[in-house]
Predict the 3D structure of the following.
Amino acid sequence: MNKFTHWNEEGRPKMVDISEKEITERTAIARSTITLSDEIYQAIQQGDIKKGDPTQVAQIAGIMGAKKTADIIPMCHPIMLQGTDFQFEYSKADVGYELHIQATVKCNGKTGVEMEALTAVSIAALTFYDMCKAVDKSMVIKETYLVQKTGGKSGTFTRQ
């Protein structure tokens, strides 16, 4: 069984010491999906969301979320991110539509950016919901997951 690294000798939580780790290029890609009604999809396509374009605002919020990850996830190290980018893709579902949100986060550092990518898509999904809830509150934020990560001692992970 793997030893948990975020506990000290007394069994209390700690932030892991990364001072001896090598700096490597690190990337992480995360995705989240939101279900939305035909009504919301049509309102977005016609520019009828009163708060503005929900994907533009969600993207800005997601970037801000990635930068603030260490402020809201207790054991995360503050990381100097070199880049955060998003893709938004709508697809027709059995009922309504789905919006797939993907974030790619990059840095050169001593620890990975998986949590930053996951936070980015989570905040983007919540912001999208907030932007569209006046039209329809039945949206569902579905699975949020890591697609890929590169760099560091553990190497590359790609979801199959």
Observations:
- The CA atoms of residues 49 and 96 lie 17 Å apart.
- The chain has a mean pLDDT of 94.
- The first helix runs from residue 38 to 45.
